[in-house]
Amino acid sequence: MFKFLKSLFETPKGEYGSLMDSRDPKVEISLTTIQTVVEALRPIQLPAQHLSQSNEVDDKFPLFPIDSIWPSNRKDKPLQYQGSLTTNDFKVVAIFQHEDGLRKDHTNLQYFYFKKEEWNELKELIPSDLNLISDKRYKQTAIVSLPIWEEIIHRYPEIHKLIVKLAPNHPWTLYKRAKKALCDIDITQQIYGYPQWMINDIDFRKIKELQFLFQIEGQPQQHSSPLLFHRW
Fold first, then answer.
1. What pLDDT digit, counting tens, does each position of 71-90 carry?
2. pTM here?
3. CA 42 → CA 47, 61, 106, 175, 204, distances in Å?
4. pLDDT in tens, 164-174
5. C-alpha distances out from residue 137 to 97, 196, 229, Å
């Protein structure tokens, strides 16, 4: 039983989790303290969809309006179809990326979404070369989402105060362990929920008017920060 509980509450792995715990890897926080924060976080959980790439895909070709042409970047190089996402607002969000990635030109990644009144007018868009269809495409899995620490500070000051009170020397560590108990996936790619920013110079008080749609993290050699898609 103890090993099971330990697996639930131990620090998340990966670069972000390692950075957090590097401040004091030996810090001990009781399960009771973690559970107190878990209960405080439950009301602010948001439903989300985790994105992953898979060989098992439902779509063969992207759906586009009738008479559409295959997307290309500003150098007229055709983009590769990476898959389609489904949201409450959009039946389909089609994502395309050039094989060279985003290193030199941001137009090497494009996404297209279609409003409800257009849904009945969409047809499969067939490429001239089947290599323009990615072998692995995005699929979605239902999850729950919680903010990163910086967003807790700005949007949920009462929860922030509670965490600081419970662990004044290690509030960030306490939050990450409580978050891990509720959200056991290291989220970098998702639809809805909270944006999981991997850069920490954002003032969340300035983005309250934005509706978060989805986030896809670029490959390290291609893009150093997440691609965040949102609208007013």
1. 999 889 999 999 988 877 77
2. 0.71
3. 11, 39, 38, 13, 20
4. 999 999 999 99
5. 12, 21, 18
